Amino acid sequence: MKSQGMKLQGKTVLITGASAGIGAATALAFADEGARLLLAARRADKLSAVAAESLARGAESVHTLALDVRSHAAVVAAMAALPPEWSAIDVLVNNAGLSRGLEKLYSGSVQDWEEMIDTNVKGLLYVTRAVVPGMVERGSGHVVNLGSTAGEMTYPNGAVYCATKAAEKSINDGLRQDLLGTPVRVTSVNPGMVETEFSQVRFRGDHERAAKVYQGLQPLTAVDVADAILWAVTRPAHVNIAHLLLTPVAQANSLLFHREASPAGAGGAR
Ligand code: NDP
Ligand code: 8X3
Question: Measured by CB atoms within 10 angstroms of the end CB, which terminus of the chain is less buried, N or C?
C-alpha cells in the first residue's frame, strides 16, 4: 500500500540563509511544490532575487526578512513583527551558516571562531527558540537543521567549524528528544562537500583557494541538498528522518576523498 506523503501546497516554510547556496535552492524546491516562503538572510538584494524566482516557479506567496541570526533581539523582533498570515510556521529550515578560515586551532582567529559559533550554533538556537513553541502549540511542524560531515568527523585546521556542526548534531538530537510526545518532527541533513559560496566565504573571496577545494572531484550541488531536504519533509506525518548523510561519490567522509587530477589521489587534501 502506498503511504500518503506530506503535501506542501500552502504550507508556510521559513528558510534561514535563503539568499544563496543551499538555502536559495531549498526555496526554489519548495516553490515548485506551491509552498508559502518566508526567506531570511542579511543580503536583502539577493533575497529579493530568490523571492522573484520562487514566485515564478510556483510559490503561493513569499515574504522576505532581512535578518542577522546572530542577534537574539533581531530574531525575536522579526518573528514578533510577522504579519498574522505569516506567523504560523509549518517548516523551519535552519540553514544559515558559514565557515571562516582553515587554520590550526592554536593560531586561529578568535573573531572567526566567534562568527562561526554565533551564526551556526547560537543563531540556530535563537531561531529554533522563537519558532518551535508555535509548532508545539498548533500540534504540527518540522524543523530541518543543516549539519555536515564535518560534525561527524573533525578535519585538520577546521576544529571550530567542525565543533559548530558537532553542536548542531547535539542540538538536533536534543530537540528531537524534547519534542517526543508532540507531532513535531526534527531532521538533521548532513552534506559533504557542496559547491556554493561556502568556500568563497571561508577564504574571504580568494577564488583560487576556494576552487581548489573541489578540484578533481564532482561535489554535490545545492540542488542535491535541497532535494534531500524536500524528501525528508515530504515523508508521511508519522515518519521522522533523524539524520540524512549525503556526500559526493568521491568523498567517503570528512577526511577521505578521491581526486582524479590530484597528485595526492585518494585522500587528497582539503
Ligand atoms: P552559502 O555561503 O552559499 O550560503 C550561506 C547562507 O547563510 C547565505 O544565504 C547567507 O546569507 C546566510 N548567512 C550567513 N550568515 C548569516 C547570518 N548571520 N544571518 C543570516 N543568514 C546568514 O553556503 P551553503 O549554502 O553551502 O551553506 C548553507 C548551510 O549548509 C550552512 O549551515 C553550512 O554550514 C552547511 N553546509 C554546507 C556545506 C558545503 O560544503 N557547502 C556542506 C555541509 C553543510 P547572507 O550572507 O545574505 O546573510
Ligand atoms: C561543509 C563541508 O567538509 O567543507 O560543512 O567542511 S566541509
Answer: N
